[in-house]
Amino acid sequence: MLSEKTKQWIDERTGYKNFFHAIFLLNFPTKRRSRWQFIWGGALVLMMLIEMVTGALMMTVYSPSEASAWGSVHYMETQVDLGWFVRGLHHYTAHMMIVAIIIHIFLVIISAGYRKPKEFIYWTSLMIGGVIIGLTITGNALPWDQKGYWSYQIETSIAGTMPVIGSTLRSLVVGGSEFGNLTLTRLYTIHVMALPVIAILLFVFHMALIRRERLRTAKIKEANDDPNVDFELDEDDPVKDEITQPYWPYQTTRTLILTLVLTGIVILQIVVYPSMKNQHLQVGIGDWEEDLPASAIKLEAPADSAFPFVARPEWFVRFLFELRHMVPKELEVLVTAVLPGVILAILVLVPFYEKVFGEKWGQRLAVAVYVGGLLIITGISWYGIKQERSAPDYALDRSQELAYAARASWLASKNGVPPEGPASLLLNDPKSMGPLIFAQHCGICHTWNGHDGTGHFIMEMKDGKKVKATPRASDLAGFATTKWIAEFLADPTAPKFFGHLGSSKGGDAILNGDMSDWAKDYVGPEGVLTKEDLEAVAALIAREAKRRDYEQPSEEVIQRGISVFSGADFKDKSGKVVEFYGYCAQCHAMKAGDPNEEGGGAAPDFNGYGSEKWLTDFIRKPGGEHFYGEKNIMPSFEESKLSKHDINLLVKWMRSEWQRPTEEK
């Protein structure tokens, strides 16, 4: 600590004491006694300082470009010491500042802090509130994740509907007509330079006005109390009852207490809120929970329109989003432009209410308008959130959004972010893209565990209603596994397999074709094949796929499978070697099951059945001579329909081939 003599020496040469007094109002008199009512403005200043410090720390890591923004924030969250805490403090403090400015303006109104000569103090409070909202909106999109990206889409689309200046304003903040690198550059510049400079100027101007007003009040009070001055206040003048106290330590202490309480709430949000937010969602689709627990996800997936994400605006503009959906398209401008303008005008004109209605009723009107407006806005927002969360697919949609977030985060931690950008983490991942490709190309006919691969049911219109569609082809979950093949052999006509083919053109020939007849003749209580026979030949065929989850059976089981497939040395249920006329090699070719290679030709070739090459060739040309030939009813997927990249991802996903956290899998 410096001695008083040293402090004096420095102050004589720098005037630092006056500087700090001016900045922190240390020696300014408070209005009357220090009061809890007047602490929110000071807390806002301190929270702005927190934002500036944490923002500066984040600037040392953050990189504003499409290719690097998400990765730099992920790096901050996972690799930088306390990076998650700094980012969380910055993020949640920004939202807390919006709450604080709402309360601050309310307290200003109920204390008539807008009355002459304090109109500009009130108006600068409103402007500071607008800048805080602007800082929060521009900051939320900077990670360039799905949440920020889609939120900013909504917010800029709302701005774009404003008459006359809408398209120009949107183009200015977006950096053109499309979102891209320029959008991030603009956002970053607005967020770290333009708005902070405006905020600082407004804060300084606001504090200067407060200082001026308090000094003026103090001088009036001094003049009133000084018997040597010919001045006396009216009996009902509130200044008459002023008991001035210095800002420090009385008001400052209370402000610090509130700031600590608000910061404590923010820290609680950082620690608890992610778990609370995600715990009620189901993440069971596709073993997503293996990548990262949903409760640990703090960053959404990288921004990319290829992956589904329900756009949701931030809570403080949610009411505009909901109102847009409540009015016809042609009236949308009333909600997005006229309404905010009306709200702003109502707030700006508060100091003039008393000119029209008198002090008593003017203030009451101001309070009623402010509180009533907040209640209406809160009600509309709450209604929208409740409606969204009660939607049938909300839990599923949100779970999948979290699943992509978990997957991207794990892949980035494991492999790093590739140079082409974070979106490629998922775009090149079979586990992420496979279900989407399946739903787009295969889900029209096939199912995957009863749904379209993404968890959604395939729907169709019937009698004017949207109902769950009946699949027209087999369910392919577990395709080419021993279990799937054994179930198919036991009953090819089951709904899971050929059961609904009859509704397709040419499908009846397959439903009631040779394979179905074979099962009727040789499977079941009257058939010569036992359950063990089916499982043995299924294991033999499944071996061709070389899937990662294939469980190698014993040599005895393999030999039994070969016997069923080729008909050689076939033993009936009593264990007696008999002639077996239903052997597979009559129609299917497979060297492993038919050493003499005498069979095959009438049905799909089983050499390499279910392997990556077999599946790719089959999807490309199911009517090929090695597959269904003339019996084929499945469409071909040439490269013009399904790219090499996509079919590779689809096949790998169908075979459960993707990078996993656990090596043994």
Automatic annotation (TrEMBL):
InterPro entries: Cyt_b/b6_C_sf, Cyt_b/b6_N, Cyt_c-like_dom, Cyt_c-like_dom_sf, Cytb/b6-like_sf, Di-haem_cyt_TM
Protein keywords: Heme, Iron, Membrane, Metal-binding, Transmembrane, Transmembrane helix
Domain Cytochrome b/b6 N-terminal region profile, chain residue ranges per copy: 6-219
Keyword Metal-binding part of the UniProt annotation: yes
Superkingdom assignment: Bacteria
GO biological process: respiratory electron transport chain
Keyword Metal-binding: yes
Domain named Cytochrome c: residues: 429-545, 556-658
Residue stretches spanning the membrane: 38-62, 92-113, 120-142, 188-210, 255-273, 333-353, 365-385
A cellular component term, taken from the record's GO annotations: membrane
Any one GO molecular function term: oxidoreductase activity
UniProt-listed PANTHER family: CYTOCHROME B (PTHR19271)
Name by which UniProt lists this protein: Cytochrome b6
